[in-house]
Amino acid sequence: MTESNKIYHVPVMLAECLEGLNINPDGVYVDVTFGGGGHSRAIFEQLSPKGKLVVFDQDPDAKNNAWEAPNFHFVAANFAFLQNHLRLLGIKEVDGILADLGVSSHQFDEEDRGFSIRGNAPLDMRMNQNGELTAERIVNEYEEGELIRIFRNYGELKNARNVAQTIVSKRESNSIKTTQDLMTALEKCAPKFKDHKFFAQVFQAIRIEVNQEMDVLERFLTQTANVLKPGGRLVVMSYHSLEDRLVKNYMKRGNLEGEIEKDFFGNVLKPFDEVVRHPIVPTEEECERNSRARSAKLRIALRKEQHVKK
Ligand SMILES: C[S@@+](CC[C@H](N)C(=O)[O-])C[C@H]1O[C@@H](n2cnc3c(N)ncnc32)[C@H](O)[C@@H]1O
């Protein structure tokens, strides 16, 4: 934890994720979204000294939650580079991969990072503070059509066009620099009594674009089949319908578009079999305890034997 009395992140569906990974104590596991390390610690506790855990996080703050052990390795990088980093560590194959997508509670709670609709902060929203694209650049420089695309696709806003037009017209007189500037500019677009949800959707859309979350998820997913050994598990938790669709397509059909590809003999070509056909969702009790769990969907797949490796 970076601050003594603040909880960094409460892991979502912890027991379900562990069960999904079906841990072999001597195996090699990767948690590509380390965050507060809740899932990682629980995985690590199940490993023998022969087992190994490699974790990724692109946010330097997460490194403060890491620990020292000969069989634990923190990689400060984007999981879009999974295969490269494993190669650098001399790891060819792993037994299980966990991804708990999106941002941590810590990132939301740190007001100055601009993820939250509470308080007032510069429009930033970068998970990796070395990244070039900020929320401020998107809001002040993106063309109207691009803004419509992100509010419609990533925010699922019904009035995406109106929101984009309002931003374009407001920024003509004054650039929109802070989270409060943005909320004030969009006051008239917010539905009555549902303004909290509306602003959360606006912020979510911008955050997904800032961090190129769909693009890196695609790049990550297509590498998992190359690094998981036959029988290895892919466990992915998503919080947004677009993310879940990509994960579902990839696990079910072996490609991001969800198209069925067959070989000469009519066998479906796909690297994974789903372990559960429908996503696992948190219990009501967990959602009450931890509101961040509410939109979570967990999918689990098993790496098949016969897929030809790239
Ligand atoms: C939902 S939190 C994970 C919480 C974690 N499972 C726990 O128990 O504390 C997501 C974390 O993944 C990191 N993250 C998100 N996308 C990433 C990416 N493309 N590459 C590396 N880290 C990423 C975020 O910085 C954040 O710390």
Write a structural description.
This is Ribosomal RNA small subunit methyltransferase H. One of its GO terms (biological process) is rRNA base methylation. The chain has 310 residues and is an alpha/beta fold. It folds into two domains: 183 residues, 3-Layer(aba) Sandwich (Rossmann fold); 77 residues, Putative methyltransferase TM0872, insert domain (DNA polymerase, domain 1). It has a seven-stranded mixed sheet, with helices on both faces. Strand 1, helix 2 and strand 2 form a beta-alpha-beta unit. Helix 6 packs across helix 7 and helix 10 runs parallel beside helix 11. The structure holds S-adenosylmethionine (SAM).
Determine Rg (CA atoms, Å). Answer: 20 Å
Number of helices in the DSSP assignment: 12
| Strands, total number | 7
Query: Which runs of at least 5 residues are low in confidence (pLDDT < 50)?
Result: none
Helix content range = 25-40%
As for the CATH topology of the largest domain, it is Rossmann fold
CATH first level of the largest domain: Alpha Beta
Family: Belongs to the methyltransferase superfamily. RsmH family.
InterPro entries: RsmH, SAM-dep_MeTrfase_MraW_recog, SAM-dependent_MTases_sf
Pfam families: Methyltransf_5
Function: Specifically methylates the N4 position of cytidine in position 1402 (C1402) of 16S rRNA.
Features:
310 residues; alpha/beta; Rossmann fold; DNA polymerase, domain 1; 2 domains; 7-stranded mixed sheet; 12 helices; globular; binds S-adenosylmethionine; rRNA (cytosine-N4-)-methyltransferase activity; SAM-dep_MeTrfase_MraW_recog; RsmH; EC 2.1.1.199
